[in-house]
Amino acid sequence: MQMEAYLYGKDLHAPLAEKPERMSDEEWKVLDRKAMSAIILSLSRNVAYHVKGAKSTKEVLQTLADMYEKPSAMNKVMLMKKLFKLQMEERKSVADHLNDFNQLTTQLASVNIEFDDEVKALILLSSLPDSWDVVVTSVSTSSGKEKMKFDNIRDMMLNEETRRNQAGGSSGSALHTESRGRPDTRGKFRGRSKSKGRNKGKKEMVCWNCEKPGHMKSECRAPKKEKEGRTANAAIEETVDALLLSVSSSSDDWVMDSGASFHSCSRRDIMEPYTTGDFGMVYLADNKPLKIVGKGDVRIKYANGSCWTLRDVRHIPGLKRNLISVGQLDSDGFHIMFGDGKWKVSKGAMTLARGLKSGTLYMAGGSNPNIPFAGAVSQADLWHNRLGHMSEKGMSVLKSIGRLPELKSVDVGLCEHCVLGKQKRVSFMTTGRTPKMKKLELVHTDLWGPAPVISLGGSTYYMTFVDDCTRKVWVYFLKRKSDAFDTFRRWRALVENETGLQVKCLRSDNGGEYNSEAIKEYCADRGIRMQKTIPGTPQQNGVAERMNRTLNERARCMRLKSGLPKMFWAEAVSTAAFLINRGPSVPLNNRIPEEVWSGKEVDLSFLRTFGCLAYVLNDDRTKLDAKSIKCTFIGYGTDEFGYKFWDDLNRKIIRSRNVVFDEGMMYKDKKESLNDGKMEKEVVGLDISNTRIPRPADNDSVGVQMEETDQTEEESEPEPPPPFEFRATRETESRTPLALGRVTRKRRAPERYSPSLYYLLLTDCGEPECYAEAVNDDHKSKWELAMDDEMCSLKKNDTWELCQLPQGKKALQNRWVYRVKEESDGKKRYKARLVVKGFQQRYGIDFTDVFTPVVKITTIRLVLSMVAAENLELQQMDVKTAFLHGDLEEEIYMVQPEGYKGDDQQVCRLKKSLYGLKQAPRQWYRKFDNFMLEIGYSRCSADHCCYVKRFGDSFIILLLYVDDMLIAGSNVMEINRLKDQLSRRFDMKDLGEARQILGMKITRDRNTGKLWLSQSEYIEKVLCRFKMEAAKPVGVPLGSQFKLSNKDSPKDDSERERMRGTPYASAIGSLMYAMVCTRPDIAHAVGVVSRFMSNPGVMHWEAVKWILRYLRSKLLKSSAPLSSTTFTLLRYT
Predict the structure, then answer these.
(1) Is 257 a catalytic residue?
(2) What DSSP state is assigned to residue 737?
(3) CATH superfamily membership of 434-603
(4) Residues of the chain whose pLDDT is less than 50?
(5) What are the sequence ranges of the domains in the chain?
(6) Most buried residue, 602, 796, 818, 1006, by most Cβ within 10 Å?
(7) d(CA 779, CA 828)
(8) Which of 257, 297, 700, 778 is an active site residue?
(9) What residue stretches are annotated with the CCHC-type domain (predicted)?
(10) What is the pLDDT of residues 127-171, one digit of tens each?
């Protein structure tokens, strides 16, 4: 269209039409040539090159149209994208924006896309900046139902720009837009001449060109500055505005800057890792450009040794101050607070950094790159630990009311154990509720459990009661959920006797322990109203739920800090409850629950750090013994005077007031070994035949004795004085504390039937559960050596390579698994295995097929029968790290192993399979199968893990069960040759003559031609597991008195509850394995009892125990010998 207008202006438009009849050919050619020349001379050289072959003006225009106005789909898409992305920039003139808009709509019209007049008007309005929002809203409202016209919108925009310029603003001024075009003089000069206001406003203006006050850019007489950033290079570099101050200061100072787009630093030496490159430009306030030459991470070290890392800090040489971008911190999930001349950065429950305001700047300066973080002075840390990891706010309240007079500061800084124990999702804002006015008017209760580990006293649950008025909490420990009603009944008697008041309302969830008829009838008889939450709304019982979380968090922090095993969780919860009752409560306006409840002022001077080392005076010593015993502090005594300690060496609890604490040394820091891991491997023997009522974890009792449930009521005792005023001498408790009053005993089943003890016996034998426990274990050096061996195997096998994680890929997590294995000679071998968390794999992306075969037990028995009959050689080999030999077909990434990390930014790209991967067994089998076929062995069609090769009259049979191999054959030379081939291809361990396979002990007498299979060790472990090692033996697998049927199954919930803790399915599984391997004589009996696994009853369980008693009678005769007298293979069709 522009070319046509150009030709009309030169009076050369005739060649655009057909040749007139009156014009000669020669005249037409000359005119056409003039028009062609005019067009070509107006083109750039690059464009003119494309039309040099054109013969006429029409051909030139057609060529240009094909190049730039070709109505292809892609061209249409590109033009539409440009139109809808078009946005008017602040400070840009309306005329320029309209020109850009019209150019795009004209180009679209040339490719047959035209817009309705109203649509053009709407698109134009939507392209205006935010400062025009009020104008857009006004136009949209005033138009009503009438269609907008493009010309009207265009005129309105031009008029609005003129009005703004006259008012002294700019097209990008949000201020004048919000005031609907009026100058910013309303209210300021009321009653005065407006001209003065305008003059004053103009004096305060700053020119964008010369940066001098008193005039605008349009009135500036100074030479116009070039518009930086609008060159062709702007399309390929990142241009970001950064705020920098022109004042001089140290290059080590850091400024918290809300205007910076990212963290910036002028020093290269403090960035690690560092990446060089062209990352664009930044422009300062004076329009001076600075180049970003690299980026990296700056590590900020806390006073307690922990570090915070500022990620992606830009390296900009020439910066006058280092900047911490508030915007980037917010994007990274940090919370930033400014006020009262201070600033603070936090994330979740932890405070990362804080500083002071200097002048008008929030400074974070200091030598080196370190920011002054929350001061972790020793006294604040010490009291933070003593108070059970109380928050800084709670400590501040105690300090303000004079409970911590010697504490100068409550700044704790980052407590790693608080992060590990308390980190949570960001909560929603909630409104508070005023507590009740009277004690026991409303009581909140909840039951927590089951715990994954049985406590020192055998408990798996705990029950809390929280008084709404005083917010005091009581904690009771239970072995069974069914003990909840008795616990509530006795707690009620205790508190009502202590206060003289009555419990009026009990609020709980809808758990089964609160829905029994017994508790309903009990509350109804005593006028106690029961409030139960709606199912699925635990928020209605928020006080109890929140108390449980607080107890668990603080107990977890204390246990992690001390390094005590998980079985001490109850002692940690007891101590947490004791400390919560002596700390400020927000619902009570920071008053202390124990003081509100009892009316007595609490004393905190006797508090000590949970899990610290303590030297307890030993009264039961000889004249030459040490006067003290090294113990671990595990809680406070209230009903029982003194502190409570755990004696590792003698495996008992001690109460004493004659003690010296070493709060700088925790349980995990003790250097002496504990008799070959005695503490982890032994089961705590608790004499629970003489027990008393459960006492709460605070004012009433703390320790193992709280965890007993079948107890009678004791008299309430007054609040005892602090431990340092105690006059009682040290007492020791080898099992549980002595009862203080008369006790009554309830009849109960023998201890060997206790579900709690059963689960306790199933715990590990002192094997660490994670890397942190292994490096703090008494056998740390052995575990480290085992991990080093595993890493050597992985490196030797070239299992992975380090690389950067590609975009869109996820790295799998891993963990260390630790096991203590017993060799055939009885020696213990410490083994560590790096295992990938395969449950994070995604089907179709990280794996496809996972099935892999193993040799059948029947095949093993058949081959062993052949060995006995034919007097064959029987050898055994083991593959070291078998799964590492498999080749991966998928692209899988894994994080670096804990304890062996190099560059934190890199991950492991797996080249070989690894333990834990879903496809690892299959890949190992495929590799081994291909190897056996390569060396001439045939795979048995009936059992794919049985390989056979013949050598004339001799043969070799190899059986594979994952990484265990049995090799049977008559030719010793060929067997040795096979061993050598296997050892060259895989990392093998030659075990020599076979002695054990899959837990079956192989005993052979080659002189008589007999071979025995024995599972005596396995059966002994099964008997011990189910507490049947001392049971009376019987002579038949199943007695005639057992007429088992579904009639013996539980009929109601109480019977089912009784059987719920019975390990029926586990016992059946253990018996089945013995039956398949070496005990076919119990096949019928096991088949009978397995029919009732879905709903077993007491009689069914008695039948299972009968089978175990039968196995005990045959313990020394685990299997009949496989004799060589007859060996006939029969075939059935």
Answers:
(1) yes
(2) P
(3) Ribonuclease H-like superfamily/Ribonuclease H (3.30.420.10)
(4) 169-204, 226-250, 302-306, 366-377, 428-429, 431, 671-764, 1118, 1125, 1133
(5) 1-69, 73-161, 254-369, 434-603, 608-671, 793-810+839-996, 1012-1130
(6) 818
(7) 12
(8) 257
(9) 207-221
(10) 888 878 777 877 777 776 778 888 888 888 888 888 777 665 433
